[in-house]
Design goal:
Layout: E1 6-9, E2 14-19, H1 30-37, E3 43-47, H2 54-68, E4 73-78, H3 80-91, E5 96-102, H4 115-119, H5 125-133, H6 137-146, H7 158-161, H8 165-180, H9 183-186, E6 195-200, H10 208-215, E7 221-226, H11 240-251
Parallel strand pairs: 2-3, 2-4, 4-5, 5-6, 6-7
Antiparallel strand pairs: 1-3
Helix pairs in contact: 2-3
């Protein structure tokens, strides 16, 4: 992981910022950034996150964006990066012209009630029993990771992209506290720009947990549900093409 690094793709002007998930992961959205710059005559940024509080990550993202790009921008967040992008846009609505949430976690706790069961859909029957009954933390982590995907061409390697537990633990705890108290979703009343939700039908996080709460607080929400798709659409054999078609259309 390259702390404080801003990954640049294409050439100036930079008009789109992709925000990776985690928290605590290194940047992993390079394939998506590279696809975007083949379709448009502008550059794309993927900043890396180094701070260990939610507020500090929001301010870090603001500083990274303002140092290299003219605002307002299109902000595309994946997973935790979708939550971070939402909170950033809520705090700085004038800096964002379009917000795209890819594989976003649920905005209300009640929609997480069936998340564990939804993981079973991406595992075979033997793996489901293992996940329910295994006493091995290593095996459970392996199965949880596998359950994020429907039919992957490859899976992310945490060791390859980098992972910082000192960032993950405090930021993740704060983020879920903000979610569970409904402070996160209620902050969205300040958002003025359109929001687009892109979500896999086999993501363990149910799309209703994103779309329905958003419709209660923001002016305009469009949603695209990608078939045969887990949490990482660009890594899915059957969904990659549709995901890119939708994303490019949204950016266009």
């Amino acid at each position: 992981m390259n702390i404080n690094k801003i990954n640049k793709y294409g050439v100036s002007p930079f008009k789109v910022v992709l925000v990776h998930g985690g928290p605590g992961y290194g940047a992993y959205l390079k394939p998506v950034c590279e696809k975007i710059i083949t379709k448009f005559k502008y550059g794309v940024l993927e900043p890396e996150q180094s701070k260990n509080t939610v507020d500090d990550q929001i301010e870090e993202l603001k500083n990274q964006i303002e140092s290299l790009i003219e605002v307002p921008i299109t902000l595309v967040g994946h997973s935790w990066g979708a939550w971070l992008s939402f909170m950033f846009t809520a705090k700085y609505p004038d800096l964002v012209s379009n917000l795209v949430l890819v594989s976003c976690p649920a905005f209300l706790k009640l929609f997480d009630d069936n998340r564990f069961e939804r993981r079973f859909r991406n595992l075979n029957s033997k793996e489901v029993e293992e996940l329910k009954n295994s006493s091995s933390d290593e095996r459970i982590e392996e199965l949880v990771q596998k359950s994020e995907y429907y039919n992957p061409s490859k899976m992310l390697d945490k060791n390859e992209i980098g992972f910082n537990e000192d960032i993950f633990k405090p930021v993740n705890k704060q983020a879920y506290s903000l979610r569970d108290s409904e402070k996160m979703i209620n902050s969205g009343t300040t958002i003025q720009c359109p929001i687009v939700v892109i979500h896999g039908d086999n993501d363990p996080r149910a799309p209703d947990g994103v779309i329905l709460p958003l419709k209660g607080v923001v002016k305009k929400v469009d949603s695209y549900i990608i078939k045969n798709c887990g949490h990482f659409p660009w890594l899915e054999k059957e969904a990659e093409s549709e995901f890119y078609d939708v994303l490019i259309n949204v950016l266009n």
